[in-house]
Design a protein that fits this description.
Leu-rich_rpt_Cys-con_subtyp; 22 strands; 27 helices; single chain; LRR_dom_sf; RNI-like superfamily protein; 22-stranded parallel beta sheet; F-box-like_dom_sf; alpha/beta
Length: 645
């Protein structure tokens, strides 16, 4: 009896034999799934303690639990409060006292209710703070900016949409305290002009990334900006005060600049852009979306950018001769975006892709004039493509899509929304095969039959994101091949693809274990069987099933119990979902952030639901029509809602 007791005691303490380094190595492998870390910490007291010391990043759901959370995790360096909309000065005071010098990064981009008092506590006590995101803090004024200036070691600062901060506040940050800044975003800070930007450029010599989108600036501040010797990323999107004369200062040189975004700068033409050739010799990415027409003059002004790898011309009027001029560039581009460009034709696009054979990413969304000719040239010349977006290319016939699967085997992202693709397609040109005997001919015909349409796409085994929304010709047969062969799939969009039923979804759920997002909205033949099969996808975090009338509370309950990482759910117009489905959702889906639900015809519980949803950490509840769901189902689980992770 005594021997048995000793044996049991030895077996119960076997974890003590593991070294601390080995346990920490195990924890390092669990970063992808927070639930795994939670399970790890529950094994024993020693694991609980080790996990508390190992964790460096926290993303709390509720601010009232901050004292307990920070007490448990004393070595946190990054605190993400983007899921906590109510952060007060008291909350920031707790953080500054608990984290003190350990804290290096904090995200307050979706939080409000704090003032300069809380920010001053944070900046004063957390002396090692290097990153702070205050985007969308529309109530902050210059006094808050002065408080931020006390963070002397700050390197990254986001102030996007802080519309009440003016040049004076930015001056406090740049002149008084934050000389070590490497990144600052002033996007939509409408009170900041040339003076504030000049102060940043003069005083913060370490700046690498500068976002000045939609600021009322002119050419007065550009000379100082371009003197920044480490500047790599400059965003001037929507700066209407910038014109060709402003860019003339580029001739003085900005050799470190690698990315320039001048989207929606309507006063800049090829004349101003020609200054880039001599001034920005290291430029790798150029974004000119919704700007000047793509003409030979514009193309010629950029052709000497020898290091250019990516150009984005989204929304620009395009001429065939302009695209041909891009095709004649000596540099070999890796990324081209022509999304929503009017004037893209087979002749122009083909001249680009046949010359730039090293393309990795191509976006031709809504290029409605291209046909199978362009697809043939793309697939024949650019076999190394990893991303192809061609939504709404309505003149491309169904038989052309087979070429993508036959030739572009490295694709990781493919957007075929609103196209004519089907399961089978039609036989491709037989002249591509050499046929010597009847036996060989049979094999060739078999290959042509098997690898067309979605069946052909299934040969792209590295696909991780696939969009097939509004593809009315696809059915379960084609989707089955995707599920069997594309096992790395993480995102699948089947919006309004009416031919899809439970059979196709079942194959996807079985074959794609890494699936984290699926959209089956308005697939009217989908039933609870699909949701039950998707409940086995443990990584699923986004489910959009709007307008699926056959889905009931049974299927929703299965998803709630199986998909513990669910953060976004859309069940609008699922008229058979009621309290029986919402109760498991409130109980099991503790990471839910956004719920969209309209299924009744009255609004009796709307205001109550919106008032009570915070304990479930919901960012948004669309409860305009929630007559079939009573508020009572939410209340029993208020005490069970998590305040952690």
């Amino acid at each position: 009896m005594k021997k048995q007791k000793q044996t049991n005691e030895f077996e119960s303490n076997q974890f003590d034999l593991l070294s601390g380094e080995l346990i920490l190595s195990i924890l390092d492998c669990l970063d992808e799934n927070p639930l795994d870390k939670k399970s790890f910490s529950l094994v024993c007291k020693s694991f609980y303690s080790i996990e508390s010391q190992h964790r460096k990043t926290l993303k709390p759901l509720r601010s009232e639990h901050l004292p307990k959370i920070l007490n448990r995790y004393p070595f946190v360096t990054h605190l993400d409060l983007s899921l906590c909309p109510r952060i007060t000065d008291s909350s920031l005071s707790v953080i500054s006292v608990s984290c003190n010098k350990m804290l290096r990064s904090i995200d307050l981009s979706r939080s409000k209710f704090f003032t300069r008092v809380g920010l001053l506590d944070l900046a004063t006590n957390c002396s090692n703070l290097v990153e702070i995101d205050l985007s969308n803090a529309t109530d902050l004024r210059d006094s808050a900016a002065a408080a931020i200036a006390e963070a002397k070691n700050l390197e990254k600062l986001w102030l996007a949409r802080c519309k009440l901060i003016t040049d004076m506040g930015i001056g406090c940050i740049a002149v008084v305290g934050c000389r070590k800044l490497r990144l600052i975003s002033l996007k939509w800070c409408l009170g900041v002009g040339d003076l504030g930007v000049n102060l940043v450029a003069v005083k913060c010599k370490e700046i690498r990334s500068l976002d000045l989108s939609y600021l009322p600036i002119t050419n007065k501040c550009l000379p100082e900006i371009l003197k920044l010797q480490y500047l790599e990323d400059l965003v001037l999107e929507g700066c209407f005060g910038i014109d060709d004369d402003s860019l003339a200062v580029l001739k003085q040189g900005c050799k470190s600049l690698e990315t320039l975004d001048m989207s929606s700068c309507h006063n800049v033409s090829h004349v101003g852009l020609s200054s880039l050739t001599s001034g920005a010799a290291s430029l790798r990415q150029l974004i000119l979306a919704y700007g000047s027409p793509v003409t030979p003059a514009l193309s010629d002004s950029l052709q000497k950018l020898s290091t250019l790898q990516s150009i984005k011309l989204d929304g620009c009027p395009v001429t065939c001769s302009g695209l041909k001029a891009i095709g004649n560039w000596c540099v070999s581009l890796r990324e081209i975006s022509l999304s929503k460009c009017m004037g893209v034709t087979d002749e122009g696009l083909s001249s680009v892709v046949t010359k730039h054979k090293d393309l990795r990413k191509l976006d031709i969304t809504c290029c409605r004039q291209i046909t199978h000719v362009s697809i043939a040239h793309i697939t024949n010349s650019c076999a190394s493509l990893t991303s192809l977006k061609m939504e709404s290319c309505t003149l491309v016939p169904k038989e052309a899509f087979a070429l993508i699967g036959q030739r572009c085997h490295l694709l990781e992202e493919l957007d075929l929304t609103d196209n004519e693709i089907d399961d089978e397609g039609f036989p491709i040109c037989l002249l591509e095969f050499t046929v010597h005997t009847c036996i060989v001919l049979r094999c060739c015909l078999l290959m042509l039959f098997v690898f067309t349409g979605l069946k052909s796409m299934s040969r792209c085994s590295k696909l991780s994101r696939l969009k097939l929304g509004i593809c009315l010709n696809i059915t379960d047969e084609g989707l089955t091949h995707i599920g069997m062969c594309c096992t790395n799939l993480t995102e699948l969009d089947l919006y309004r693809s009416a031919g899809i039923t439970d059979s196709g979804i079942l194959t996807i759920a079985r074959g794609c274990a890494c699936l984290d997002m699926i959209n089956i909205s308005y697939c009217k033949d989908v039933t609870d069987s699909s949701l039950i099969s998707l409940s086995k996808c443990l990584r699923l975090n986004t489910l959009e099933s709007r307008g699926c009338p056959l889905i009931t509370s049974l299927g929703l309950a299965a998803v709630a119990m199986g998909c513990k990482q669910l953060t976004k759910l859309d069940v609008k117009k699922c008229y058979n979902v009621n309290d029986a489905g919402m109760i498991p959702l409130a109980h099991f889906s503790q990471n839910l952030r956004q719920l969209s639900h309209r299924s009744g015809a009255v609004v009796a519980c709307q205001h109550q639901l919106l008032a009570e949803h915070d304990y479930l950490a919901l960012e948004e509840v669309d409860a305009k029509w929630t007559g079939s769901c009573t508020i009572g189902m939410w209340r029993p689980y208020k005490s069970e809602a998590p305040g952690l992770l």
